[in-house]
Design a protein that fits this description.
Length: 156
């Protein structure tokens, strides 16, 4: 996929798309993937001994953050932990990954206050910003919010 107006190349990395190789990954500006596929890639790439793909990551935008702490899906926690650990390694000090920004997005976060508190603990040195759009709708949990929670510098 290409956004020719801006010269941006996107790459889809899913379980349905196994034709991906290191050349495709390094030539893309944006990689779109599921958390589960990305987590598998972190294991594969670490085993194969190359970290080039990960060193180029400067922004991680995670959708469906309302699934945090879901006992059946821990991929988000695993991916964020692995990337944070990699970003602190000596090999990554001069790479974009050293200053990676994480943004969490969801259309259905019923407890955004709790999530904001959790992010404030993770990014102790950074202010957490919350932007929401409230709309009434028929939902078992009441008001749904479109929300973005991220370190303030990621929103600027």
């Amino acid at each position: 996929m290409k956004l020719p107006t801006w010269g941006i190349t996107c790459l889809e990395l899913t379980g349905d798309n196994e034709s991906c190789n290191t050349k495709n990954i390094h030539e893309s500006n944006i990689s779109l993937t599921t958390l589960e596929k990305f987590e598998v890639m972190t294991r594969r790439e670490a085993r194969d001994g190359w970290l080039g793909f990960f060193s180029d990551i400067s922004l991680v935008l995670s959708d469906e953050v309302h699934l945090l702490n879901d006992p059946h899906r821990a991929a988000l926690e695993v991916v964020v932990s692995k990337l944070k650990m990699l970003s602190w390694s000596k090999e990554m000090t001069s790479s974009p990954l050293a200053n990676v920004c994480f943004m969490a997005v969801s259309a259905t976060i019923p407890n955004f206050e709790d999530l904001t508190k959790m992010y404030q603990k993770i990014w102790r040195r950074e202010e957490v910003s919350e932007a929401s759009h409230k709309k009434k709708c028929n939902h078992e949990k009441g008001v749904l919010r479109t929300i973005c929670i991220a370190p303030l510098k990621a929103l600027v």
